[in-house]
Amino acid sequence: MSTDTQPTPDGSPSVEEFEALQSRIDELEAELASVRSDVEDGPRKMVIIATKGTLDMAYPPLILASTAAAFGYDVTVFHTFWGLEILHEEKAEDLKLSSVGNPSMPVPNVIGALPGMDRVTTRMMEKQIADNGVATVGELIETSIEQGVNFQACQMTIDLMGYDEEDFFDEVETGVGAASAFQEMADADIQLLV
Amino acid sequence: MSTDTPTETLDVKGQNCPMPVVKTKGAFDGLAPGATLEVVATDAGSMSDIKGWADSTDGAELVDQEEATEGGETVYRHYIRKTE
Asked: Rounded mean pLDDT of A15-42?
């Protein structure tokens, strides 16, 4: 930028106008530097909305949450509807796999619909999980909590489904709703609905 | 691995995604600057996962990655130095 402040022909900025512009530019540059440092200094953030409570669907949010935490992200997982089961102290390690409605299952739907079939397919998957060295849901929750992942349980669905705040792991934050989840999502770099 | 002698070894053999990376991060946090962490894994995905983690983690330098057959299984060794 030119520093020439000599009077100029008509129609061009006067010295005063020029100085005012220069000081405005300085102000804006300072503001930009401050915004830039806010963006660069703070940790990046991920928010996952977890809505499913089957054994297979518990994994994506927990794996991504623990991985993002390992990458230094601030992570919040907001659990709502069936997603609450993942945070339920008694149910978390006993999530079921549905034997119907999934064309990738080796069992035809008519057989999958027989009584007790969900239990059979769940056992099969639990065995595969153990055989392949994949962490259990409980282990992933524990690891995530150790890494500072913030697990939240939607208050409206806690009430709707007749749960009590005491039913969840101690570290789970309750008393939160759509507005706080929305606010966190607005601030986050990554937002996922699972 | 040729130059640095690892300061600490993390054994995650038999553990699958995402545990190798998650536990690497935990062990790496406890290292002193200049120290090198050796991670021993059997998860083939750990080759790209740990590289990706080190690339995007400040102060983590991936010194070397090795693949070898030990006792009939493929073992992946990763060496990560803490630079700051």
From this structure: 88
Inter-chain residue contact A70 with B21, CB threshold 8 Å: yes
The shortest CB-CB distance from B18 to any of A63, A72, A146 is to: A63
Structure tokens at A125: 């998957």
- B26-74 pLDDT tens trace: 999 999 999 999 999 999 999 999 999 999 999 999 999 999 999 899 9
- Give the integer Cα–Cα distance in Å for A140 and A110: 34
* Residues B60/B54, Cβ–Cβ less than 8 Å: yes
| B64 within domain boundaries | yes
Residue of B14, B42, B56 with shortest CB distance to A71 = B56
Rounded Cα–Cα distance for residues B46 and B55 (Å): 13
How large is the average pLDDT for residues A39-62?
A: 92
Pairing of strands B36-41, B73-82: antiparallel
Q: How many domains in chain B? A: 1
A73 phi, psi to nearest 5 deg: -80, 150
Per the structure, the complete domain to which residue B33 belongs is given by 8-82
Residue A6 pLDDT class (50, 70, 90 cuts): low
Distance from CA of A69 to the nearest CA of B (A): 8
Q: Is B65 annotated as catalytic?
A: no
| Exposure of A158 in the CB half-sphere (CA atoms within 13 A) | 20
CATH of residue B34: 3.30.110.40
Q: Which amino acid is at A120?
A: V
**Given B16, B17, B18, B73, the catalytic residue:** B17
Contact B57 A67 (CB under 8 A): no
Q: Note whether residue B24 is domain-resident.
A: yes
Does the domain at residues A44-193 carry the CATH identifier 3.40.1260.10?
Answer: yes
